[in-house]
Amino acid sequence: MYIHRHLEEQILKASKSYPVVMVCGQRQVGKSTMLYHLKESGRKYVTLDDLNARRIAETDPMLFFENYGTPLLIDEIQRVPSLLLEIKRIVDEKALKGIPANGDFWLTGSQKFRMMKGVSESLAGRVAVFDLAGLSAREILNLPGGVFSPKIDDLKERSQIIPGRSIHETYEMIFRGSMPKIICENVDRDRYYTDYVNTYLERDIKDLSQVGKLSAFADFLVFMAARTGQELVYSDIARTIGISATTAKEWISILERSGVIYILHPYYRNITKRLVKTPKVYFMDTGLAAYLSRWPDPQTLQNGAMDGAFFETYVVTEILKSYFNAGVAPNLYYYRDIDKKEIDLMIVTAEDVYPIEIKKGIAPDKAANNFSVLNKLGLNVQPGLVICSAETLIPYNRDVWYCPVTLL
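Now predict its structure.
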């Protein structure tokens, strides 16, 4: 079974305007499946996981492209990033000769394009880059896509077409995760994540960096999963795992580069020095985080000590996916000052700021009173949301609305 991905429209549109289209994201989120589903009959496919293809790409990139031709879909380009330089040469040569090249190369990479050292600049102006995460709730439920809008009128409109869902069903989705293979095929969840982690540690990590003992990195991965939705303090990581703060930063970079985590930066303005500058970290797949944290089932997770952190992680990553799937860079932050006043999420536009609190409860009154802290910053603050387990979109007052998590 194939589930329609909201990013498909952006891919096809970009392919008409750019010679290179690249889709980046965590392994097994469906990058190659989506592109293979979209590709024309004449577009060849090659994966650089194939040893022979990789050998030719590394030793004679010109022969590689003579053999496969264009249009071409190349899977796992991070295996041989030097191919990007040859792609640049081909594209530029066609441009000089006036030969159309748009859509010639579709690429996937299990590594963030902007973090592929020394090569991302080579295709500047020639490549459209997209991020793909696991399946969003909207994709799973076959609902329309688009960037999540915190505007009350838009949410009212969405509430007319979105089916309701109990808090238990939400935690079942959190526990299951968003990997297409788990959702689309009859595979054992725990077996899948066991294999996923082993593959990630034994293959991808070795490709990304020299991390020393994989056992220590495995402990680090579990530690980070148990702290999803929390502030990223490198000294705490280093002390707990027994590594240096420098190594902790390098390992965090590996997780970010391979799409396993998303780092949410704090909102910061020069007008005040009272704002905390420590980022927060979120696992992009809640199922993987729950597996690593050893939660045995959705019910235990829902009633456990990390219920709020996983609920927040789910909300933040669903909103992130809406941006990724629309091909739009997210403009998301969180707020925290030295007085420990915090707002979980801020959607910042050129004109306005939309504050969002994320709480598991049905009507969390305390969270609804948090937004006044923004008044001192001189921002154009719009009505805020408390995304929670409420059954309907309903106002707390004129400036704050309870928003069901189902409206994401």
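The chain has two domains: 8-131, 143-407.
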